[in-house]
Design goal:
The protein is α/β, with parallel strands linked by helices. It has two domains: 151 residues, 3-Layer(aba) Sandwich (Rossmann fold), CATH 3.40.50.1070; 380 residues, L-fucose Isomerase, Chain A, domain 2. The protein is built from 17 helices and 18 strands. Strands 11-12-16-15-14-17 form a six-stranded antiparallel beta barrel, surrounded by five helices. A hairpin with a 2-residue loop joins strand 11 and strand 12. The chain starts with 9 loop residues before the first strand and ends with a helix.
Length: 555
């Protein structure tokens, strides 16, 4: 098959999509809008966009929707050509990664600044995967690519083949960064790292490689030095175990949740509504996951579910949110006593093994401090400026498909609601665990692979409370069935975060106050460093939620 070389000042554009036909068809109009904006911006800068693959009239979309198709398409693209990866939707990086590994021309990943499908999450996944693979790239993001920030970046990329972003908010973590008052925490963090290497632990992996997330797979040899080992398990085994859970056991879990005040939006149409059977099947998954984690001796587990299970049973999000919370329906062992009694069973959503490592460290550190170790793995979904409810400034929307513990919500279980997963993604449905994250101090982090080593970016932030109207506006601009966190990151701008964050996911955990949050950060950073992870401290750890908001209003 011949390779066509683009002409002078021509740029080849590719668009990776989902593997699910329904998602690609539904999201295609948003991608078209993005591509028109990109074509206009490049045209006004004297360059011409040439699409690297055609619209498929039979499938009714123009995405690369599979790895084999991506390989065929890249065979026809000049490997020296300037290349744009344009994303308005969630995408599977595996569809384009093979082609990108052999591409020698400058690569630009870009996304629309929108939470709708979402392209920002997809682009961050591409970026983290390219970082892991050692493939040079640049990135840019914009609502319409007419703003000065985007135009300046595009102009720089066309002239130099790269874009330089400000990442000065991230610097190597040193003990002196936080000061001598945290010496006790430095000692405890090192001891926790040494204990993990000595005693070892297992991450239970229910099928690797969810949704083509190459960045989410940690090479075994990077784990072994930390004392971590994977127990590779099958989603089919999980489904088989679900079928053995008696109906009355699932019903008991259901009653436990309703007594705590959780509400389920129950309907009758399996295809479009949440039914009681879907909830019960999800609770059978929860029960089975706890039992399998116990039987295999796992310290944390991850369920892929997006491929395979989505066509077999309900989504796993209700189960995941329950697992991440020490306060959850009791699962009795063979002797009748609760398994992992009073403990979380940390779950890393979508089998993101980087998040699994992170969740395990968080669990050890928070438990050592005697504070709630519940964690949420959110998508870095979107964000916008807000001036209301005592809040003035940029507020992120962190939002995941339901795997959030109710302990993170305003009202706990009484503030939680179960709604049906969107049929576009989940034909068998299943309940989310939806709520609004409570105001408070948080530690955020991300473990990622770079230069064949593990790295961690860690920092401080807070969760703010917005009005019901603004919360609903943000839900409707993203996915209203999913749990939401209104987050501010101390000392980090929007564009710094986008330029540096190496994942579509971000790990968050609460602390009762700013001082305790910094103590937890100190222990976690030193524990990670002791395990051989390269640690960056991001932003301003000396901020508090109160001071952050006061400073924004003074500005």
């Amino acid at each position: 098959m011949s390779t066509q070389k683009p002409g002078a000042r021509e740029v080849v554009l590719v668009a990776s999509g989902d593997s699910r036909l329904s998602a690609n068809q539904k999201c295609w109009p948003a991608q078209q809008t993005l591509e028109r904006a990109v074509e206009k911006a490049f045209g006004e800068l004297g360059a011409r966009i040439v699409r690297g693959h055609e619209y498929d009239a039979d499938k009714k979309h123009g995405f690369i929707d599979g790895q084999a198709r991506g390989i065929r398409i890249f065979r026809q693209i000049d490997p020296e050509a300037p290349l744009v990866v344009a994303e308005a939707v969630w995408e599977y990086t595996s569809h384009i990664l093979a082609g990108l590994t052999k591409h020698r021309g400058p690569i630009l990943t870009l996304a629309n600044w929108s939470g709708e499908w979402p392209g920002l999450v997809g682009m961050l996944n591409v970026n983290a995967s390219l970082t892991k693979a050692g493939i040079p790239y640049s990135s840019i993001w914009s609502e319409d690519f007419e703003d000065g920030f985007a135009r300046s970046g595009l102009r720089q990329w066309l002239a130099q083949g790269k874009i330089a972003h400000d990442t000065s908010h991230a610097r190597r973590f040193e003990d002196e960064t936080l000061g001598a008052s945290y010496e006790e925490d430095f000692v405890r963090g090192a001891a926790l790292g040494q204990a993990l290497m000595r005693d070892q632990a297992i991450l239970g992996v229910f099928d690797e490689g969810c949704m083509g997330m190459y960045n989410a797979i940690v090479p075994d040899e990077l784990m072994h030095g930390m004392g971590l080992f994977k127990e590779r398990m099958s989603q089919s085994a999980l489904y088989a175990a679900m079928r053995e859970v008696p109906d009355d056991v699932a019903r008991r879990h259901y009653d436990w949740l309703r007594k705590r005040g959780m509400v389920f939006a129950i309907g009758r149409d399996e295809a479009s509504e949440l039914t009681e059977w879907q909830v019960l099947e999800g609770l059978k998954m929860y029960d089975s996951a706890v039992r399998m984690a116990h039987d295999f001796g796992c310290a944390a587990i991850g369920i892929q579910y997006q491929q395979g299970l989505k066509d077999t049973c309900v989504a796993s999000d209700l189960a995941e949110g329950l697992l991440n919370n020490p306060d959850r329906p009791p699962v009795a062992g063979a002797d009748g006593r609760p398994l992992f009694d009073g403990l979380a069973v940390p779950h890393f959503n979508e089998v993101d093994e980087c998040a699994g490592v992170d969740a395990l460290l968080t669990n050890r550190v928070w438990s050592d401090l005697g504070i709630d170790p519940s964690t949420t793995l959110h998508d870095v979904r979107w964000g916008a400026s807000v001036e209301e409810s005592g809040v003035n400034g940029f507020v992120w929307v962190f939002e995941i498909s339901g795997a959030a513990p109710a302990s993170h919500f305003i009202g706990g279980y009484a503030g939680a609601r179960g709604e049906r997963q969107p049929p576009m993604y989940f034909p068998k449905g299943g309940s989310t665990l939806k709520g609004v994250s409570r105001p408070g101090e948080i530690v955020f982090s991300r473990v990622y692979v770079k230069d064949r080593a593990l790295h961690m970016d860690v920092g401080r932030g807070g969760v703010v409370k917005l009005s019901d109207a603004e919360t609903e506006r943000r839900w409707q601009a993203t996915t209203p069935q999913w749990p939401i966190m209104h987050a501010v990151l101390y000392g980090i701008t929007r564009d710094q975060m986008m330029a540096k964050h190496m994942a579509n996911h971000i790990q968050v955990a609460y602390a009762p106050d700013a001082r305790t949050a910094n103590r937890a950060l100190a222990r976690k950073a030193v524990m990670a460093r002791e395990l051989g992870i390269h640690v960056n401290l991001c932003g301003d750890p000396d901020q508090t939620l109160e001071r952050h908001q006061a400073a924004k209003y003074r500005a």
